[in-house]
Amino acid sequence: MYSIDDLHNIDDSFKHHRTLTIFWVGFVVYTIGYTMSITSNPIFMICDLMRLIGIVLFIGSSFLMLSYKFENKYLKFFYTVYLTWLLVVVLRGLDLDYEFLKKTLFNPFSGIFLYFAPLILLIPKPPLFYKMVFKVILLLTLFYLIHIGLSFSEMLDHENAGSRDRLEIFVKTLALSSGFILLTYSYQPKINKIIAALSLLLAVFLAVKMARRGLLFITGVVFIFTFLMFIYSNKQQLIYILFSIPVGALIVGMGYSMLYQSDSLLFKKLKDRATEDTRSGVEEFYYVDMELKDWLIGRGMSGLIAAPMGIEEDSKTPGYREGIETDYLNIILKGGILSFGLLLLIAVPAMFKGFFLSKNSFSKAAAFWILLWLLSIYPSTVTTFTMNYLLVWISIGICYSKSIRNMSDEVLKQYFLLTNSEYKKLLQTIKEPTDLTE
């Protein structure tokens, strides 16, 4: 059983503090460069430069830290097979054309880096790694609030297709990961919880306003999972649970009533979208175009799929598109059932271990994050090079780590809620001899 002293000793023995910081700085710079590039009036030279700097920083630093060590032999085997297959998927779709390289390097949603996101599992993770993760999530959330603040009037225009797309990218790239702060709320200071809750509530409001069903589903599930974490963390306080369950049911009932009985324009658009079928036509083209070999091994990183006319008519390949909004079908398009199956063989047991073989809320929050990703791969595209998807692999590492799963909540709360300076003061107080004459 680890003590708080053990966790700080592990941090002190970690030799890559600065390198880890550089990695996260590079990732944040890359992410902000991308989100700036999809605003209404981007300065592409600055956006491209930021992404290029970010790439240099996070690639260079990550290769200095990568370590092929595992606590779990099952994970080691299937992860190795999965990484090998991802390399094949990338090589099958690689092109040395300048435009292709620029697009695949600079686009976190369909580029090459989403295939390398699992490598974060190989970065050594002392306890301070998770503290850094929390800080990065909050930093991205603040940038999300800045983006929304600068374009709020535009975000209220639900007839503007560009605004709808930008909102979805802003939330998935910058805000959604704040749900992990809510799931780990018992380890967070009050200000972190407030920022995370406000950002996701704003995302819910804008998702309703812009009639984005996928976003509303994902953010809604985050709040449901947070409620379940609250029940787990307060299982000994029966009065809170008995009070919170009917309150939660009341809120859900009011939401349903407002959506289906209200005449408000705010809910009318969402209600119309809720019954609108925008997927079946696209998916029918997908099923017709895919052959047996494609189902088994996919078409590679650059694989295209047939789509109804009117979709991406201005592209170089009219009648075909680079992917599909249904994420699990997109994974199969690129890497086949082999890729999707290996991913499930890694993720599902991790989730099971986090839920049922752990002694702390941290592991259960990680399991909930994996479950959130699994539930989101139908209504939305979430397998991307974003903090949201990196957290899936970080959570997989947490759930497979027996040492993390066996840590006590008390030690983890002390570690995450005490700053380094506060911990040193506490140590000094403990070590000072007591004057028995006083």
UniProtKB/TrEMBL annotation:
- Keyword match Membrane: yes
The keyword Transmembrane belongs to this UniProt entry's keyword annotation: yes
Keyword annotations of the record: Membrane, Transmembrane, Transmembrane helix
Membrane-spanning segments: 20-37, 49-68, 74-93, 105-123, 129-146, 191-208, 215-232, 238-259, 331-352, 367-400
* Name of the protein: Uncharacterized protein
Organism encoding this protein? hydrothermal vent metagenome
Q: What is the lineage of its organism?
A: unclassified sequences, metagenomes, ecological metagenomes
